[in-house]
Amino acid sequence: MESTSIYAALAAVQxxxxxxxxxxxxxxxxxxxxxxxxxxxxxxxxxxxxxxLHLADELAxxxxxxxxxxxxxxxxxxxxxxxxxxxxxxxxxxxxxxDSQITGTASSYARKYALNGLFCIDDTKDADTDxxxxxxxxxxxxxxxxxxxxxxxxxxxxxxSQPVQEKSFVCACCGKPLQPVTYKGRTVxxxxxxASTKKKFGRVLCWxxxxxxxxxx
Length: 217
Fold this sequence. Notes:
Layout: H1 6-16, E1 23-25, E2 30-32, H2 35-48, E3 51-62, E4 65-76, E5 81-89, H3 99-119, H4 131-134, E6 181-183, E7 186-188, H5 190-201, H6 207-212
């Protein structure tokens, strides 16, 4: 039987793959897809096309910061391979999380975007993109790139110079600067919290004060 090109097999997987947004963020009120959602959807398709998927992580130093570099590699039974990579930065500190949890969060985020690149999953309207902030959308999503998240989109090269967070967001209730927080394993940056609370409550609130606000109805 004649061997099929790995690119032809990948194209078939891309055309068949439907990865629904199976997760819901209660704070932001939006649906999103996780790495696990993509893997659950793609595994039966890979089996049907005699393909194997391998995910791997490694640390990459960029400037003075460490990033998690995730690589998604597709292999057919003839040994042909094609890969996609993505990066996510580990935050310096996250309250309530130990080092392994911080690394795990960055790994999941990087793997998701490596899979997005490999299977051409378009997240341009997903809450994980910068469109959320500019449109005043729903997301306190999990990147670390201020004011744009550091996790690159599909197949992006290692970031060489990251923009610095210049704007400081202050809670209108307690007067304290907004800090990054972790919500259901996702990193919520100050800019994202500010945008979400501004839309929901009409003013910028920190995560703690937002939880204390009276519920509608």
